[in-house]
Structure formats: C-alpha cells, structure tokens
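Progress note, sequence design subtask.
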C-alpha cells in the first residue's frame, strides 16, 4: 500500500512538471505576457512620438508660422523693420546667448558707410 502511494505521488509530480516548468508552462507564459506588455508600452510611446513629428512636418509644409518661429528661436532672426530688444537681468553680460540686431537699413537718398 505504501509503495502504491509513493508511485502515485511521483506520477503526480511528473504530471505537474510540464504545467509549471515545461515549454508552455505557467512561468513561461507569465514571462511572455510581461514581454508583450513591455512591447505594447514601447509601441504606444513610438506612436505618440510619430504623431508629434507628423504634426510638425504638416506645420512646416503648410504654414509659414512654424518656419518663422524656428527662425526666431533657433537662429535669432528678426523681420525687416522690426526692433530687437534684449532685457538683461542684474549682472548679466550683454550678448550672452543672443545675437545682436543687424544695423538698420540706410535712409533713402543717403549712402551707407
């Protein structure tokens, strides 16, 4: 009787092995589900990034506002007949991080020196 109980317990353990540790076992499935969740999160992040880039491309193609804004902030460009004003904080040196405004165009009838 004792031998039959030991054999049945051993068979029960052998049957449980594939369920827990086998190729399609619960531990493997849990690991794969975590990988799938991580891939979904990465894909969503990339979708948001692509949507942002797509809207920026559409702005650059369709409107001049985005081009003008980039020229102002990245290249420190100004429009013609526009006055450039730089406000300095106490102790700040003029010209830090900003390009000075170009000289105004000469008045009609006068020559530039």
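Output:
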């Amino acid at each position: 009787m004792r031998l039959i109980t030991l054999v049945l317990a051993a068979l029960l353990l052998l049957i449980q092995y594939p369920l827990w540790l086998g190729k399609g076992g619960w531990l493997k499935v849990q690991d794969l589900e975590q990988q799938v969740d991580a891939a979904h999160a990465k894909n969503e992040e990339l979708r948001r990034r692509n949507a942002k880039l797509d809207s920026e491309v559409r702005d650059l193609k369709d409107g001049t506002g985005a081009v003008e804004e980039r020229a102002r902030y990245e290249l420190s460009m100004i429009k013609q007949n526009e006055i450039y004003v730089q406000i300095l904080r106490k102790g700040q040196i003029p010209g830090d991080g900003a390009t000075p405004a170009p000289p105004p165009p000469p008045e009609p009838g006068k020559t530039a020196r």
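The two ends are 117 Å apart (CA to CA). Work on this subtask will continue into the next period as scheduled.
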